[in-house]
Amino acid sequence: MSKKLLATGLAVLTLSAAPVALSHLVKEEAMQSYRQSYFTLIAMNFGPMAAMVKGDMPWDDAKMLALAEDFAAVASVDVARAFGPGSDKGTTRAKPEIWENTDDFLEKYAALQSASKGLLAAAQSGDRGAIGGAIKETGGACKACHDEYKAKDYLY
Q1: 3-state DSSP assignment of residue 94
Q2: What is the mean pLDDT of residues 47-71?
Q3: Phi, psi (degrees; rounded to nearest 5) at 150
Q4: Can you give the pTM of this predicted structure?
Q5: Using DSSP, how many helices (H) and how many strands (E) does the chain show?
Q6: Is 37 within 8 Å of 17 (Cβ atoms)?
Q7: Tell me, what's the pLDDT at 3?
């Protein structure tokens, strides 16, 4: 597959995901919408990087760096404020344990933010081994939180 075709495919995928992110904008559930949109952006940037590392998608140093920059920028946004009182109900897959174990949740979130910085540094280095390790660390940070605090289906 040519780089141009791959870039076009990624652009189409990104644009097709835009309505998904926007569909989370529900006035009556502002905090739920905020965090769902945030995590959609996280996934749309992390997924292609992981796919490159796994070999499911051709490696592209420039694209890897651009995705890592965007991922780190999104991860730097404070999504924790979107887990405020009353946001445990509504359209959410956030388990009630988030509000019961706030300190642990915030530690896991901080680990994601830290991993995103490491991933960006690895991508800037261009070292594929370092990038692979950073992808693994970042994916582990995501999984740690998902395992404890994310339901497979919407709860309410």
Answers
A1: strand
A2: 98
A3: -120, 120
A4: 0.81
A5: 6, 0
A6: no
A7: 56
